Amino acid sequence: MTLVPHKKAKALKPSSRRPAKELCSECGLCDTYYIHYVKEACAFINQQIPNLEEQTHGRSRDLEQSDDLYFGVHQDMMAARKTEPIPGAQWTGIVSTIAIEMLTRGMVEGVVCVQNTEDDRFQPKPIIATTPEEILAAKVNKPTLSPNLSVLELVEQSGMKRLLVIGVGCQIQALRAVEKKLGLEKLYVLGTPCTDNVTRAGLQKFLDTTSRSPETVVYYEFMQDFNVHFKHEDGSTELVPFFGLKTNQLKDVFAPSCLSCFDYVNSLADLVVGYMGAPFGWQWIVVRNDRGQEMLDLVQDKIETQPVTSKGDRHQAVQQSIPAYDKAVTLPMWAAKLMGVVIEKIGPKGLEYARFSIDSHFTRNYLYVKRNHPEKLEQHVPDYAKRIVSQYKLPE
Ligand SMILES: Cc1cc2nc3c(=O)[nH]c(=O)nc-3n(C[C@H](O)[C@H](O)[C@H](O)COP(=O)(O)OP(=O)(O)OC[C@H]3O[C@@H](n4cnc5c(N)ncnc54)[C@H](O)[C@@H]3O)c2cc1C
Which of 10, 15, 123, 207 sits between 20 and 30 A of 245, alpha carbons compared? Predict the structure, then answer.
């Protein structure tokens, strides 16, 4: 049985359905009757990460502790990969595997995840999966804003009491804010980091300007080797160096919500599975609390792990990237490739790469909010992000 959202909320007026206006990340909350809580719950109207960290993990992050400051509240961190990867998963399929184990062992009755529509592999279709097959059909990123929370009112209607939600930071902040209204006995949250998301139209522009064959792309990821990796239908991989991206054409492609986001690492999930703090080819696991550990324990016999490491110094690269992005500098491809090779050899690795990525995005986003929504700057940017940004000299 797959539960997909009904269209009831569509009757509401568009202006009242999206109170965050252009900053809306289409998390789906406003497609449900939980829209009544949107002014408190929306990540872009009411930033409240420290309070929700306290509610979820029992404490908010310690700003004096470097790993906490960057990666959020956690009790363990490691690199991991499945010994038998799931073919067609985004990385090795740790997310799908944990979800399947939780369902088949009866820990949860349903899993909120996102499949794609029949005619478009990148068009998101959120569901509440109740079989392993439905979870598997949701594998791989839909690299577009996805209204995952649009299925939330079905949870209450179906009578489910134990639920797993898979989602990105903005979806999870809204979920945590309404968690107590859902009538659940147990909620587990499996998060992924997320940055630079796009609308479906924005995705097309990105593919058209960046890939040699936009229509055959089945998957892409900005990887730790400073290349975007596109996988094509025929199994081939295309590498495009970060420094060769057509920044002048792509500056407006990212959603305004993502340009205003400071929750890259999904602070409010119980367990986070990404890649950016791990060596190339491995996934990065952040266990935030005991529920997260309980989830990870289910797949210990299916993964190999190694400790996280950190190498290099990101600061200079981040500082140089700030004016380069601002001026939309695009290098000729030969120079971009050369720069990619050099930075791969001497650049930041492991957790330092993750910090590089966080610093680059937070400085860019801080400038975006300051220039476009100055009235929101103080409340919207969390203290941890202000501290991270303060390490750099920013243009006006
Ligand atoms: C839009 C996006 C951007 C990301 N950016 C980064 C990043 O910058 N750094 C980093 O370390 N990691 C990032 N990740 C996470 C990373 O790409 C992998 O998703 C993660 O490592 C899990 O891989 P897997 O093979 O275990 O997942 P799979 O087993 O393939 O499962 C993927 C899961 O993701 C869910 N999903 C797919 N698309 C979306 C969506 N749009 N919104 C919410 N949930 C979705 C599906 O429901 C599915 O359950 C991003 C993920 C997304 C969705």
Answer: 123
Q: How much distance in Å is there from the Cα of 394 to the middle of ligand 1?
A: 30
**297 lies in some domain:** yes
The pick from 96, 192, 218, 308 for probing ligand 1's pocket by mutation, whose C-beta has the most ligand atoms within 8 angstroms, reads 192
In the predicted model, is pLDDT for residue 7 greater than 90? Answer: no
Mean pLDDT of 113-128: 95
Is 140 touching ligand 1 by the criterion CB < 6 Å? yes
Q: Where are the alpha helices (DSSP H) in the chain?
A: 14-17, 38-41, 49-57, 66-71, 94-104, 132-136, 152-158, 169-178, 200-210, 247-250, 290-297, 315-326, 333-346, 351-372, 377-380, 383-389
For the stretch 285-315, pLDDT in tens is 999 999 999 999 999 999 999 999 999 999 9
Residues 6+ apart with CB under 8 A from 341: none
- Residue nearest (by alpha carbon) to ligand 1 atom 20: 274
Does residue 340 lie in a domain region? no
pTM recorded for the entire structure: 0.94
379 is a domain residue: no
Q: Please indicate, yes or no, if residue 354 is contained in any of the structural domains.
A: no
pLDDT one-digit tens code per residue, 323-378? 888 887 777 788 878 877 887 788 899 999 999 999 999 999 999 999 999 999 99
Domain that holds residue 189: 2-197+257-309
Task: Give 130's contacts (C-beta < 8 A, 6+ positions apart).
Answer: 1, 2, 3, 103, 109, 110, 111
Structure-block tokens of residue 39: 């002014």
Ligand 1 center to 396 CA (angstroms): 34
CA of 375 to the centre of ligand 1 (A): 32
